[in-house]
Write a structure and sequence with these properties.
Chain lengths: 110, 116
Amino acid sequence: RKEVEQDPGPFNVPEGATVAFNCTYSNSASQSFFWYRQDCRKEPKLLMSVYSSGNEDGRFTAQLNRASQYISLLIRDSKLSDSATYLCVVSNQAGTALIFGKGTTLSVSS
Amino acid sequence: NAGVTQTPKFQVLKTGQSMTLQCAQDMNHNSMYWYRQDPGMGLRLIYYSASEGTTDKGEVPNGYNVSRLNKREFSLRLESAAPSQTSVYFCASSVGLAGGSGYEQYFGPGTRLTVT
């Protein structure tokens, strides 16, 4: 099993749609979880951290299921500007570094 | 407010040439990182520096060396470039080690390197 696995997509959705991304990770000792966003030919930027209790930031909701080693990201009311690659990120066992998934590509069209 | 800066933005090398990628941050962060990103592979950690004066290998360190020159600067050196090192290189920094404490990593704009 790869350390962090994501469906690469692409996910093609119309404006206003709700879309969900899933991610699984292999290391049960991981302590930190994030979603990063990367626009085409740009650097990754933090979208949100993910907490066990789940957390929401506007139209974005992240969930963590430690028992299943599963992370999700829900985007409601998609905007054209949400088009990007979304990276699932998990800390390594030693807690010294982050492991990045390969990303899920989202394309929102009008 | 520069954040993390990287130079150069683009570079073309011939096989066997050497070069140093420069990275600097102005956020007073303790930890710095070098990643490479290849199509279909995602970001992979090359080296990291937990704090000034320390460096450690990441997932793919072979063919690279690093120097943490001071708290602000962390350079990556390719001693003898190979076509397999063609990639986009990102430098990042965080307040502390990102893995254990959930610190956000801030990335530079990247260096696009082609080795022919």
